[in-house]
Each structure stands twice: as C-alpha cells, then as structure tokens.
Amino acid sequence: MAEDNSYESMLCVKPEVHVYRIPPRASNRGYRAADWKLDEPAWSGRLKITAKGKMAYIKLEDKNTGRQKKDCFN
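Now predict its structure.
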C-alpha cells in the first residue's frame, strides 16, 4: 500500500457560515431563497477548504469546539 506523503494545505477559512434546509419546489418556477427560513438556519459554524494531493476537502466545523460536522469531497 502506497503511503501518501503530501501535506495538507489550507485554501480558505470562513469563520461563520449557515446551512439551510431547502424545501421541495412547489412548482416548476425554481427555488426561492425567501422560502428557506433564512432567520432559522439548520446549522451554523465554520467552513474550511483544504487540499491534500489532488483532493480538495470542504469541512464544516463547530465554531466553538472545532469538531467536524460534514465532509464533502471534490
């Protein structure tokens, strides 16, 4: 098994981001941000984008504890 010796680089940090639950569309007119309950985000925290080798990672973390919430791979 090959060992990955590449280092992880920090590409971007956003100290406060919000995640919203997007409701299903009621018609074919598309999505409207006004329907997303912008005053009640489903989650708030910090966003970090890192890269290691040829992979980029989007990390959502609790802004107080630093505990990771979700990973999205590109």
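The two ends are 23 Å apart (CA to CA).
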